[in-house]
Design a protein that fits this description.
Helices cover 44% and strands 18% of the residues. It is built from 24 helices and 31 strands. Helix 3 packs parallel to helix 7. The longest helix is centred in the N-terminal third of the chain and has 41 residues.
Length: 873
């Protein structure tokens, strides 16, 4: 636009008027107020639409969650979170708004001084810009300050509110009773207090950075900071100096209270935690860096008072960067020149601390050790003393048995077995190891899907398949103690309430009871079926119109509101997946991946889940993937498969983290002694914890620092790569897990058989057996870990060596080759290691499956001992 263009014909002014914005000045449009009203109505309608689309479903979800928590009696969990979030988020938002808005107003005032006004918007616009547009830009900046800072404060408040658990755990913290070897602080300081310091300093730094960005933007737009030579007016210098000083001050505090203690969690070679170089070089360097940040902040304030902020700030920044580089470089040089040539001597005290802390943090410091001899003869007397072990040899692997159950016990396509669990029951007066699988409903496999079928008629699974771990029919199929529909039992173990409304496949809501009958199981000939109606206490009532409207919005199903099949008795059951149900009930816990089903004495079905407390803050402890370096199985959760009731029992009252949680949620956790005796008899040591403990113990059984440094006696899990470098991985099903098994056996030196979880060890990169570790499950021995070591002077064949001998056996090789040539497929079961006092027996089942078939049949059992191999039916 040239200067000769009349202001009223300026295209920018015309576009502003067409948009309904009233310019300031004599050329203001008289129709402006009416246009603004129309714009406000449009904005209001858009806001209402956004509220309906976003806020209403969010409110419905929150209300539905509240009703669900009230149903299971865990309202305290729901309200504690909400109250804590508001108590933390609201003050944080108010402080952020006051800080940001106050700084913005100061910046606006500084930019409005006469000496600044002379080079305001003209510095950023072409000459001849109409005064209306200039006034609009300036007034727009002023008007936007409050909503912009309010939005930033809201985001800051939401971020802080999400950290409510960190604050609560600090307020209810419990000491560990163990101190770190460097600073002498209780471990509870690192687990509960240090995260709060990290949160507070991080939030302060973030708020200061946001304020700096806001005021720099204001000064740039209003001309408070000229682009010509970066001239900063005095008031702007003072404000920037104060913020920079605060930034450096908080940085100094963060280095001292967060970074320096954080060195105790570092992962290095040959240990986790603070090394010699950290203690003698890195920590002093960080102290110097902290002091430098503090001094730099004070210098910036002095420079602002002297109106020399720009020149002095550059020197402060350069000086601080140089010190930071030196703080990073010098420890590396010290490590290379001083520590590495004498690493073992320098690191021995730290290695001792690392071994002790790792064993304490992972609960492997109290493992009972026993040396066992090696019997040369497997005598009849030895077998007689260990008859319980022999009689419970597990011949069925989970995967083949799961396939077999799916073919012979699913009955209908919409039933499915998703897991097989080990357990023990007293059957006929004897302790028997059994394999149990729940028959669950898979709504995705229904022949006809729809609202009625999925949510009103097909609502639950039905019964279980249960059989001994070592019995087989003449056809090679598993013997079943409980089978068919309705579940029929051939032993003194009954299922009186077979319906499974809550399970591992139950992932959608159902409405029960209703005017539609619920399918129970197929009965009689043809398409006859048995039906039932739910009469449990589970679920949330839906009697009122408002309740039905709420759940229709929550689950996005108008049929909940419109269906005439729903009556005053109807309850809605949701969050029916037992893992999700437990996680929502106890959101502060981590859960074992394998929930398992138990038949109670009264015939009801209950799910048992193991829950863990974890931390990443245990000084000097070895961390697994994800950074976790402390774990306890502190809670056992019981969920009724019929009514969904949730009960949480305190399994490890010595754990400081769970004691802190118990103080946060008083009355939520019940004593383990209050668990019904028939359920407590089926409590078992959690597999995920044992998996990590055995992997760690393979290295951390070495308590001598020199032996540990050289890895002279390191073990490994047969078939697994040795864990000697870096964080231990969180193992899942795969290599190395094949030899971790539950079994009923009599341990050496014990009188009675018991249910144990066992895993063998071999020396690193060797195949002979070194030891085996057990976790005990029964009675007063629950939770005890024991390791039985073999003499190091004698060769004891390990699993891989036995597998090679089996493959070389002519009879086995001939039989396998013969079967593979006749349209069948041979499946080799997992090799079992059976300790019989000082002797070892290896057992491997062979399954035969027709090519393309899905029913593996157990045909042969291979037994091996001391290199001798035999095979029989």
């Amino acid at each position: 636009m040239s200067e000769r263009t009349p202001p009223g014909d300026d295209p920018i002014i015309r576009s502003i008027r067409n948009a309904g914005i009233r310019p300031f000045g004599p050329d203001a449009d008289p129709g402006g107020p009416r246009q603004r009203r129309r714009s406000l109505i449009t904005v209001g309608l858009v806001a209402l639409l956004v509220a309906l689309v976003v806020l209403v479903p969010a409110i419905a979800r929150r209300l539905a969650d509240w009703l669900w928590y009230r149903e299971i009696g865990f309202e305290r969990v729901f309200f504690t979170r909400i109250i804590a979030q508001w108590v933390l988020g609201l003050p944080a938002g108010v402080v952020a708004l006051a800080f940001l808005y106050g700084n913005a107003r100061v910046a606006l005032a500084a930019a409005s001084q006469p000496e600044v006004r002379s080079r305001t918007v003209e510095a950023f616009m072409r000459p001849g810009v109409p005064p209306e547009l200039r006034a609009l830009v300036e007034r727009g900046l002023t008007l936007l300050v409050l909503p912009a800072t309010a939005l930033l404060s809201l985001l800051f408040a939401l971020t802080m509110a999400a950290q409510w658990r960190t604050v609560l755990q600090f307020l209810y913290r419990t000491p560990f009773g163990t101190t770190d070897p460097v600073f002498g602080r209780d471990v509870g300081y690192y687990v509960f207090t240090l995260p709060l310091f990290e949160l507070a300093t991080g939030a302060a730094l973030g708020l200061i950075v946001i304020a700096l960005v806001v005021i720099l933007f204001i000064h740039l737009m209003r001309g408070g900071i000229s682009r010509e030579g970066l001239r900063i007016p005095p008031r702007a210098q003072g404000q920037l100096a104060v913020l920079a000083m605060l930034f450096l001050l908080v940085t100094a505090v963060r280095i001292h209270f967060v970074r320096i203690p954080g060195i105790l969690f570092g992962e290095h070679l040959p240990l986790s935690g603070a090394r010699f170089v950290d203690l003698h070089a890195r920590i002093p360097a960080l102290h110097i860096l902290s002091v430098a940040a503090l001094v730099g902040g004070l210098v910036l304030v002095w420079a602002a008072m002297r109106h020399r902020l720009v020149s002095i700030a550059a020197r402060v920044v350069v000086t601080y960067v140089v010190i930071a580089i030196l703080a990073a470089v010098i420890p590396g040089v010290y490590q290379r020149l001083v520590v590495q040539p004498n690493e073992l001597a320098r690191e021995t005290p730290q290695i001792v601390d690392h071994i002790r802390a790792t064993r304490q943090a992972w609960g492997i410091d109290s493992v009972q050790l026993a040396e066992i001899g090696v019997e040369t003869q497997l005598t009849p007397a030895l077998i007689a003393r260990n008859r319980a072990t022999i009689d419970n040899v597990r011949l069925w692997d989970r995967e083949p048995l799961l396939q077999t159950f799916g073919q012979i016990q699913s009955i209908r396509t919409y039933y499915d077995f998703v897991s097989v669990d080990d357990d023990r029951y007293r059957i006929g007066g004897q302790l028997r190891q059994v394999l149990l699988a729940p028959r669950e409903l898979d709504t995705g496999s229904l022949p006809t899907r729809g609202f009625i079928n999925e949510h009103l008629t097909y609502t639950h699974g039905m019964g279980v398949a249960l059989g001994p771990s070592n019995a087989v029919t003449p056809e090679g199929l598993p013997v079943l103690f409980i089978k068919d529909l309705p579940p029929a039992s051939s032993v003194d173990l009954r299922v009186t309430r077979p319906q499974i409304y809550y399970g591992e496949l139950s992932n959608d809501f159902v409405l029960v009871p209703s005017r539609q009958r619920e399918f129970d199981y197929p009965a009689g000939e043809g398409d006859a079926a048995a039906y039932s109606q739910y009469d449990g206490r589970g679920g949330v009532p839906t009697a009122s119109f408002l309740r039905r409207l709420l759940f229709a919005i929550r689950f996005g199903s108008a049929n909940i509101l419109l269906s005439s099949d729903i009556d005053a008795r109807t309850r809605i059951l949701y969050y029916r997946d037992v893992r999700e149900r437990a996680q929502r009930a106890l959101p502060f816990m981590l859960f074992d991946r394998d929930p398992y089903l138990v038949i109670a004495a009264d015939g009801r079905l209950h799910w048992l889940l193991d829950a863990y407390t974890v931390s990443e803050r245990y000084p000097y402890s070895r961390a697994i993937s994800g950074g976790v370096n402390y774990m306890r199985n502190s809670v056992k959760v019981v969920i009724d498969a019929y009514d969904g009731s949730v009960r949480a029992y305190l399994a490890d009252p010595r754990d400081p983290i769970i004691r802190t949680i118990a103080r946060m949620y008083p009355g939520l956790l019940q004593p383990l002694d209050s668990m019904p005796a028939d359920l407590r008899a089926h409590v078992r040591y959690p597999e995920d914890l044992f998996r990590v403990q055995t992997t760690l113990y393979a290295t951390y059984h070495m308590v001598n620092p020199e032996t540990f440094y050289h890895r002279e006696d390191e073990w490994q899990i047969p078939g697994a790569a040795p864990q000697t470098r870096g964080p231990v991985g969180s193992e899942r099903r795969g290599a190395g897990e094949a030899f971790m098994r539950h079994m009923v056996m009599r341990l050496p030196g014990e009188q009675d058989p018991e249910f144990i979880l066992m895993r063998p060890f071999t020396p690193r990169q060797k195949d002979n057996l070194a030891a085996w570790m057990v976790a005990r499950n029964d009675g007063a021995n629950y939770g005890k870990l024991a390791v039985y070591r073999f003499p190091r002077q004698r060769l004891v064949f390990g699993p891989n060596q036995i597998v090679n001998r089996i493959n070389q056996d002519t009879e086995v090789s001939r039989q396998v080759t013969l079967w593979d040539q006749r349209g069948s497929e041979v499946l080799r079961g997992e090799l079992l290691v059976l300790p019989i006092e000082g002797s070892l027996i290896y057992v491997q089942p062979l399954y035969l499956r027709a090519q393309g078939g899905r029913i593996p049949e157990l045909k042969r059992v291979i037994a091996a001992r001391e290199g001798r191999v035999s095979m029989g039916e």
